[in-house]
Fold:
Amino acid sequence: MAICLFEDLSISTLLPLTHLHPDFDLRCGIFTGRERVLQYFAGEKLLLSTRMGLVDVMSERTGLPVNTSDGADLYISGTALMRPALAHAIREHRGEDRLYTSGGILLAATVVSQALREKIHHWLKTGMLREELSSSSHSRPDLKEFAAPILEVESEALCFPWELIDRNASMIEADADFFMLGTIDPMGHMAASAELIRAERIFVGPDARIGAGSILDATEGPIIIDAGAVVMPQALVMGPAYIGPHTSIKAGAKIYRNTSIGPWCKVGGEVEDTIFHSFANKQHDGFVGHSYFAPWTNLGADSNTSDLKNNYSSIRVTLEAREHDTGRMFLGTIMADHSKCGINTMFNTGTVAGVGCNIHGGDFPPKFLPSFSWGGADGLQEYDFERFCATASIVMQRRGKHLTENERRLLRDVFVETSGQRRFAS
Structure:
């Protein structure tokens, strides 16, 4: 048996976060979608199906077969949030032709017959492997064309970036089942003056360190401190919360509920309802709330996000030059890979920064910052691509990573693809 994890048609509406990643590598809760599938279906062979522009990068990043889905008997959408109900339904019907949906959206399919397999393969090749995401329309397949029984299950499919933030708390709760709550690993270090509230809902992994005077408060949800993570003295972490491997929570930080911080991050100040994917830094004071920060992002000291409008009205955002009414009262900043801001940056409610932005200067920068923008409130210009790559290489090398030729080519593709948006930057 093998699983094919495929990019869904909504990758265009998840931009700018999906410029450099398939939808199944976005973080929501403790895991990315790909990590979660490996948790629920441990030991099974995993195959990936992505748009053509990501094939070389994903082969390099994962070592998994990409766009060779022959032999799969289970197909899972990259936007599906795998929950126990969906995993149970799949296991129960694994030997049948069946589609698993939520609100009419395809989440997964189990396949036995060659007829259904051929229809799915045709759909993957013709409907999903698109090069120009920003110009694609958002649509869903007609499930009747698959001619297979449909089972509606309790789960969700992601469509827009703010839904990652909306569902983060419930996914932390569900993902916590993969950890032995109430465990303080003997290989870790817990300061005598650290306080654990509702310790039966807390997990502290091997080589993790909890500093003097720190408070882990799991009253409202579980707290996972993963292997090698450090919570420095006098820091507060309130559940539900996840602190990933080798991440550092700075001294005196306030990490409020519904926050996920992935591996190799450094986070300080005041944070709530926010996701840091991995290799992202916010080391100093300043507030971020209801926000998402992709890999290799960095916030300068005393940077702040607004996540609530003064008139409490619905927040509108711009994704790839298209405006959307989110229907949300709370939404902060969505920042894609390799974007950075200088000290004292102020982000307005519902700000979106694309890939490779360098944001600086006084006052509020524009709410929509096209990929590879340089500047702020006084105006934007195009970030020179070679200068960007030189900086990205230095940043990655400091964490023992390297900007590969495949990643550089992908970044160049995004640079070219988004050039039209930068002509209108102001």
About this structure: Confidence is low (pLDDT under 50) at residues 129-138. Residues 174-422 form a domain with the UDP N-Acetylglucosamine Acyltransferase; domain 1 fold (CATH 2.160.10.10).
